Amino acid sequence: MQLALHAMLSVLLLEGARVSAFTHLNALPSRAASGNRFLSTKLSQSFRLRRDVWRQRGNGGTRAFRFSELPASKRGGDEWIDLRVVSYNIHGWRDASHADNFDKVKRVLGSLSPDVMALQEVLHPYSLPTDAAQADRYLDKVRNAQGRGYKCGQPVGQESYLLALADATGLPYVSFGKATEDGYFGQFGYGNAILSRFPIVSETHAVFEPEAHHQLNRRMEAEQRSITIVKLKTSQYNTHTFCVAHIDQLSDALRAEQLRFMLPFAEAAGPHFLCGDFNMFQRTDCTPEQWDAICNDADTRGWERPPDITEAMGELHRRGYQDCFYMSDDHKNSTANGLRVEGMSNDVQTPGATLWPDNPLLRIDYAFLSSEWGQASARVKHYQRLLVDASDHFPIVVDLQLSAAAVPQTDTAAERTAPQLFAVVSGDDGNSM
């Protein structure tokens, strides 16, 4: 079949005046292939909060920061930047029972005072229909797995939940990477978002479209999934890179394939923080009782028992990613008294489950530091879950200390050969997005 190879490099540059610019590459010629996969590209929606919102926030209750006012500390005579990152799958703006969760999410995230938020399963632009009957009809459709193709539209004059959340939490810089426009939650933009207190210097969104064979023998469609990568100006002289990913919930083979596609984009950005919903788990994160419960649950459902470690998790291990829980002072010192927020888990021995607040069983949400970011340039002070029922996941809270010295530059093979395009892997059905 003929598959087109199109190229578009999407780069947004943010300067003091908060001006963004796009650079596009012309489409490359079509190429024929039999059984091969090619890269195609599409422009992902990215945006900034309106400049007037930033001005209002600067003059109002949540003031704009100056770099000299950023939290910092000294360790060994060096300057360190203290910041809090929260990773949260918000379940398409609804809780585990499919009731609207915006107010809960806003309250939970506001209580954490994050500097960077990495969200998964974000609908944008989206807010619940103001008409009660229409809202109930839409929520019921999704609850009964009939959301695909359903369109109820954005209420006229109502601000999107994502922008309203950014405004409520005082995080004025927003990057949204759209993975698809129609899926389980209906016809809305769906993907990842990063909200930041720090200016966004650059961003990349890479979207993976599964090949047709991944759709076979599934109880739920394999959707497009994505990674969002932003470089933030964390001090007057420094930038640091943060990434959020969301990968498939059913197939480990597909998860490993998605990671092999996504991670080179992150690696090309240099040392980075990576978090998100990876939909995978491993035995070493569990107590013996928890692992037995996971295996018994698989038996009850008639599923194959899970392996001790999955192929997708092995991909992260091979690339040297360091799990922030095991790097944290909480784990190393067997004490977790630094995060005084109501509902904090206080995990010190094992990281704890993140899925299903009513019956927590699986740890599928993670935060990692890339291999280049060692103890010399980054420290994980705290890693905890917040035990709240606003979504079908628990949020992860990570307190970092990042060196205010120049971020180390490496010349790895991955950086020299990493893809430079904003890309979608096209399936083998001849269609490109």
Low-confidence stretches: 1-70, 408-433
Overall pLDDT: 80
Helix fraction, binned, reads: 10-25%
Determine the structural class based on helices, strands and strand pairing: alpha+beta
Give the distance, in angstroms, between the N- and C-terminal Cα atoms. Answer: 16 Å
> What is the gyration radius calculated from CA atoms?
21 Å
Number of strands: 17
Features:
single chain, 433 residues, alpha+beta, eight-stranded mixed β-sheet, seven-stranded mixed β-sheet, 17 strands, 23% strand, globular, disordered N terminus
Concise synopsis of the structure shown:
By secondary structure, the protein is an alpha+beta fold.
Structural summary, described in words:
The protein has helices at residues 51-59, 102-112, 132-143, 161-169, 252-268, 288-301, 311-318, 324-327, 329-332, 413-417; strands at residues 2-3, 31-32, 39-40, 72-75, 78-89, 116-123, 173-180, 190-196, 200-208, 225-232, 240-246, 272-277, 322-323, 365-369, 378-385, 396-403, 424-425. It has 433 residues and is of the alpha+beta class. The chain is globular and about 60 Å long. 43% of the residues are buried. Mean pLDDT is 80; it is low at 1-70 and 408-433. Helix content is 21%, strand content 23%. It has an 8-stranded mixed beta sheet with strand order 3-17-9-10-11-12-14-13. The chain has 10 helices and 17 strands. Helix 2 runs parallel beside helix 4 and helix 5 runs parallel beside helix 7 (311-318).
